Amino acid sequence: MKTAVVSDSTAYLPKELVEQFNIHIIPLNIIFGDESYQEEIELSAEQFYEEVKRRELPKTSMPAIGNFVELYQSLSKEYDAVISVHLSSGISGTYQGSITAGEMVDGIEVYSFDSEIACMPQGFYAIEAAKMAAQGSDPQEIMTRLAEMKKTMRAYFMVDDLSHLQRGGRLSSAQALIGGLLQVKPLLHFENKVIVPFEKIRTRKKAIKRIVELMQEDVSDGASYQAAIIHANCEEEVLAWKSELEELFPNVEFQLSYFGAVIGTHLGEGALGLGWVKK
């Protein structure tokens, strides 16, 4: 059985990894007023962070069902099945769109996977699926492995400005107001598929230190891990952080990633994140 792997643009997979592992990407959309852009195709992260400095905060939308159908139909000419890995169903309808489209397409079996997370940690699932598919694993084996990965998948992130989360409906107005008044840099994470505060921390420096402590708790077992340092247009800061982390955790393979347009809309410039999973 020949199996394709699909992910959506919010995994922010580097182009070289997409090509290396033959992962098919379906884009989400960014809408500035009457103008809609396909994330990562028509609007890069760099362009997005420039645009939001001079325009109103955009809206975001999931891929159209028709786009899913078109992609799956195209894949059906060459593949028997597809593993479709998507951002958390608690913050987007993308995963459900994949299920709906899969039921509409003949000639290929679609296995939709709810990563219950986003960004590069979501990408880790897609890469693992692609590696297994290339080795000839059947879809059920791949889905079982992805479910196993969830047990050690962790991600924490910090926002610099709570207003983006509040305006996007991901955080209550009261939480945003209180956080802003106190200069709180809340640590956030995914719980039950949605973004929730993990801890409230007063400064950026202390928030970063706390994320490192949380990683230490997990990776001190000596096993091998892979991790992604994720940033919203603050690459210089995270390059220095990466060097520190590599020295602290020799058993962890680190890579840099970023919050692109869709996730960046909700987190805002200056956000930082760290996600890891046992290899």
From TrEMBL:
InterPro entries: DegV, DegV_C, DegV_domain_contain. Keywords: Lipid-binding. The keyword Translocase does not apply. This is DegV family protein. It comes from Niallia oryzisoli.
